[in-house]
Specification:
single chain; mainly beta; twelve-stranded mixed sheet; eight-stranded antiparallel sheet; 51 strands
Length: 979
């Protein structure tokens, strides 16, 4: 959210209070106009030693091509590495990587229709649009398909081979998104249902034939191999800058392309019916490019296959056709082949999967090369668009504040190669602070670490008054990635506490300073804004330019109008605006990523006359600024480094943000601890959703409607100091932390299964409302019970086969797949008992089952003239006829109070014989018990959480069609044993 500006405003550099306005939009443009000459704090007097930028026409025009396909296997034999040279436009076009694995029946016709009404399931929509179309009208004769009306055609695209998984890759706003489609054959019945025509009430539901999950995302062109992963595809990168390879008329240069997409797909993502791949199998693989232009979800003719496929199209002539003639839902078996990949023999991957593809990384050769020119535009430079050369400079610094936010405007520019602008702040709240940066992480030895390039630096002894040093408490470091998909990255450093916070990123030259603090794991509680318009080619010139006197350089610096604009909440630099007046000192510096220093600082570091020599540092060496160029700065540093710019902050006057109406600014209350902000959004918790929990229970937060079911399966809730604490979950089956710890921990592992089991047993230490991973037999809609299905959801998530994701949540309902029927029998060890005696009741499966993975039993005793049979124990005996006899990887849980037990195999299933043993329930006749009692097995699922049998996987339901109870007569006479 965006925090509003608020409170009494002050003019910079003045003790007297005056009303000022925020300096216009935070967009990096028109900075002198926005701030006004009265807020000019410092002007540059040094030529830049980091290069003078030149802006010229010429920028990338997007195109689409698929040049070569490379394949390798990870050195640890746990990933398939895929490299595709080429590029994609950011218009929704996708690369689709189709994979067929052995021992699993996939789809040949694309049957991904019904995968959620498409706005609910998110882009890309191209896979679903090329699937079989939805029946709009069956004309009253569903058994006759020849007269049916379809939304657009009948058949789906025919894949070039049987396909189990399809990875769809698209690019938008400088980010890569990777979605996996699970396309296993489902015996023609689908894995669930949906309503394709919600406005047509009463019509039949349509089946869902596929599942989709977002497996990874990350910025393009970032130079690293790190992806944000939801399910394990965490290694990869996309350098989308390719200008080589094929053209619109000639495919002979395909092998010249060296950049594109690289992915490391874990074998655990590619499951066969026997489990995950182990690196010894032979799989089939191909790459498609599919047109992504669309305007609606059903009935719109989009999703054409483009000729940029690998292996390349055949026979000849197809290359010369317009792309849309290749086919809307074509039969690709007649147009292309597939690559057969023997995982035993493919080379080991030896590089970094960042999108720069060297054939040597993949054993030296491509497995497929393009032979068709691209009909979808060759990526090139457009002379009508701007581009820029390297260069970094700081020209002028403008400062103002409004009593709650500090506003900075810095004209200039920075090279998009890891150079940083770092702005230091002395908040003068206390006497603390630093003049020597001894904190190792402030340097950056590895790209992507986010360092400021400053560790080991002795900062200049800046003076707000002569010979008085400013002690720095905080620093903000800014760097940018290159266009056309450039981003502006912002880190906040608490220098004293030695804590770094990634605040987020804005989009380069977007006209907005709003920081995305979610996509890459940032934190921006007070909504800091940072904008960069990086096209400046005015201002100071490069080192060695003619006319280096102070007046000439400062005049040139004043011509720059674009650069950096920041809105910095005072809370981010350790100031509570309600504590009273404060003076903030600040100094900015351009550095290289790994410690190179420039002479570009504001206030400037050029000494006063009569010395008047530039602080040039032309070699950009790592240096202590005390010893630049000559001895002047060593013996009289205040003559070399100008006093820090400063601004005077008064306490807020006009209250703007006061959500609880107590006449105190919300920021002030959060900072002094009088209210909580558990979700760190800058708003008191009692105001953003009314999340108060006066009873101290998590259920008050998670179950607002009081139906004993969590309102959001994608949130883990707690109550702390009478305020709800909300933790977002990546998947519904993240039920808690390691070894019984309560907060969700963002992992699918054995601990989630154990949370489900302890909750079933009534022994959970975490709030029961949070221990609900989903419904029965793989359904994503939670049911309010801790039972066998929650344990199976957790196991499926660990195995990478679960269909329930966050967001969106819940995923399309899969529903159970009925795979068999069973009759259960309760057999007592004695037909009669005396009051106070124990009697055991064994539960058996009468008929054999093809596959059993887990089960839950619920028994109840009833009857008798008086007294009762009391359940005192539940156990599973280690005997030869036990359904899971001989298996080591089993789990079980027991709840005597509820009359329930469960048992299962972690990742296996077993066929059972007649009269297979399940469990033993031990009852005691009460002292006053008399009469005929019945112990039965509850199996009416409509009545709630009762008895379930699960087949080979969590979606397979074995229906309990019949139960035979045990009859026990309790009398005062002698009991008879069964022989």
């Amino acid at each position: 959210m965006t925090r509003r500006t608020m409170c009494v405003l002050t003019a910079a550099f003045s003790v007297a209070v005056a009303v000022a306005a925020p300096p216009g939009p935070i967009d990096g443009e028109a900075i002198p106009t926005n701030f006004g000459v009265g807020n000019l704090a410092a002007t540059q007097s040094n030529f830049t030693g980091f290069g003078d930028r030149t802006v010229f026409p010429g920028a990338v025009v997007e195109g689409n091509e698929t040049d070569q396909l490379f394949l390798a296997k990870s050195a640890l034999n746990d990933k398939l590495h895929v490299g595709i040279t080429g590029n994609l436009a950011t218009n929704g076009n996708i690369w689709l990587i189709g994979i067929g694995v052995p021992n699993r029946v996939g789809q040949t016709e694309n049957r991904a229709e019904g995968l959620g009404f498409c706005p609910d399931n998110g882009p890309p929509w191209t896979v679903r649009s090329s699937a079989r179309e939805i029946v709009i009208s069956d004309n009253g004769t569903p058994e006759i398909t020849s007269d049916d009306t379809y939304s657009d055609g009948v058949n789906g695209m025919i894949f070039p081979a049987e396909t189990d998984y399809a990875y769809a890759v698209d690019v938008f706003a400088g980010n890569i998104s990777i979605n996996r489609y699970i396309l296993h054959e489902v015996d023609g019945v689908g894995i669930g249902t949906w309503d394709p025509t919600p406005d047509n009430l009463g019509d039949a539901m349509a089946p869902v034939y596929a599942a989709k999950d977002n497996v990874a995302s990350g910025p393009t062109n970032d130079g690293d191999d790190i992806l944000t992963s939801a399910f394990g595809v965490d290694e990869g990168g996309f350098d989308n800058s390719n200008l080589l390879g094929i053209t619109g008329t000639d495919a002979s240069g395909a092998a010249t392309a060296t950049t594109g997409l690289e992915l490391g797909i874990p074998f655990t993502e590619l499951l066969t019916d026997l489990g995950a791949l182990d690196g010894t199998e032979t799989i089939e693989l191909y790459v498609l490019m599919i047109d992504g232009v669309e305007s609606s979800c059903v009935g719109d003719a989009y999703g054409h296959v483009v000729n940029q496929v690998l292996p390349p199209l055949s026979p000849g002539g197809v290359c010369d056709s317009p792309a849309d003639l290749i086919g809307f839902r074509p039969d690709l078996t007649t147009l292309m082949g597939v690559v057969s990949v023997d995982l035993n023999t493919i080379p080991a991957f030896t590089g970094i999967a960042e999108g720069v593809i060297d054939p040597a990384e993949y054993g030296g050769a491509a497995v497929a090369t393009q032979t068709c020119p691209t009909p979808y535009s060759d990526q090139a430079f457009d002379p009508s668009l701007f581009s820029r050369t390297a260069g970094s400079e700081l020209d002028a610094l403008y400062v103002t504040n409004d009593g709650t936010n500090l506003y900075l405007g810095i004209t200039g520019n920075i090279e998009e190669n890891g150079n940083r602008v770092t702005i230091f702040f002395d908040n003068t709240v206390d006497a603390g602070g630093e003049t020597f940066l001894s904190w190792d992480p402030m340097d950056e030895d590895t790209p992507g670490d986010g360092g400021a390039g400053l560790e080991g630096d002795a900062l200049p002894p800046l003076a707000s008054d002569i010979n008085t040093r400013a002690l720095f408490d905080y620093a903000i470091s800014i760097n940018a990635s290159a266009p056309p998909n450039g981003s502006v990255y912002v880190d906040l450093w608490d220098i004293v506490a030695q804590v770094k916070t990634f605040k987020g990123f804005s989009i380069l030259e977007s006209g907005s300073g709003e920081l995305d603090s979610v996509t890459q794991g940032g934190s921006n509680q007070w909504s800091m804004q940072v904008a960069l318009h990086n096209l400046n080619d005015l201002g100071v010139l490069g080192s060695g330019s003619i006319g280096d006197d102070i007046l000439t350089v400062e005049t040139a610096a004043g011509t720059a109008t674009t650069g950096f604009e920041l809105a910095i909440p005072l809370a981010d630099i350790g100031i509570n605006p309600c504590d009273g007046p404060a003076t903030i000192h600040m100094w900015s510096l351009v550095t290289g990523r790994t410690g190179w220093r420039s002479n570009q600082s504001l206030p400037t570091m050029r000494p006063l006359p009569p010395f008047d020599t530039q602080r040039d540092n032309p070699e950009n060496v790592v240096t202590d600024w005390y010893a630049v160029s000559d001895d002047t700065c060593i013996f009289a540093p205040n003559l070399c480094f100008r006093a820090a710019a400063h601004t005077y902050i008064t306490t807020p006057g006009a209250i703007v943000n006061d959500c609880n109406n107590n006449q105190i600014e919300d920021m002030c209350e959060i900072l002094d601890g009088s209210v909580n902000d558990a979700n760190f959004n800058g708003v008191p918790d009692t105001c953003d959703g009314g999340e108060a929990c006066p009873l101290g229970t998590a259920a008050e937060c998670a179950d607002v409607d009081g139906n004993n079911i969590t309102d959001s399966v994608c949130r883990w809730w707690d109550c702390s100091v009478d305020v709800c604490v909300e933790i977002p979950k990546g998947v519904p089956s993240d039920l808690g932390g390691a070894f019984g710890a309560c907060p969700a921990d963002a992992f699918c592992n054995i601990h989630d299964r154990n949370h489900a089991l302890t909750c079933f047993a009534g022994l959970n230490s975490c709030a029961t409302i949070n221990i609900d991973a989903g419904g029965a037999f793989g359904a994503c809609l939670v049911d309010g019970f801790c039972n066998i299905h929650d344990a199976n959801h957790a196991l499926s998530c660990f195995a990478g086969t679960n269909l329930c994701t966050c967001p969106p949540s819940p995923a399309p309902e899969t529903g159970p797949r009925v795979v068999g029927q069973a009759s259960l029998r309760a057999v007592s060890t004695s037909r009669s008992a005396l009051p106070g005696e124990l009697v055991q009741v064994q539960i058996l499966v009468d008929n054999p089952l093809d596959a059993l993975q887990s089960y839950q039993l619920h028994t109840v005793a009833s009857g008798g003239r008086r007294g009762q049979l009391e359940l005192v124990d539940i156990e599973v005996d280690d005997r030869m006829d036990f359904v899971f006899a001989g298996f080591l990887s089993t789990f079980d849980a027991f709840n005597v109070a509820k009359g329930q037990m469960l048992s299962g195999l972690d990742f296996d299933h077993v066929a059972t014989a007649d009269d297979a043993y399940l469990a033993t329930f031990t009852y005691r006749a009460s002292p006053d018990a008399v009469g005929t009692f019945v112990v039965d097995i509850l199996h009416d699922e409509s009545a709630g959480d009762q008895t379930f049998l699960v087949g080979a996987n969590s979606r397979d339901k074995i229906e309990v069609t019949k139960t035979n109870p045990a009859v026990i007569v309790v009398s005062s006479g002698p009991a008879r044993s069964i022989r």
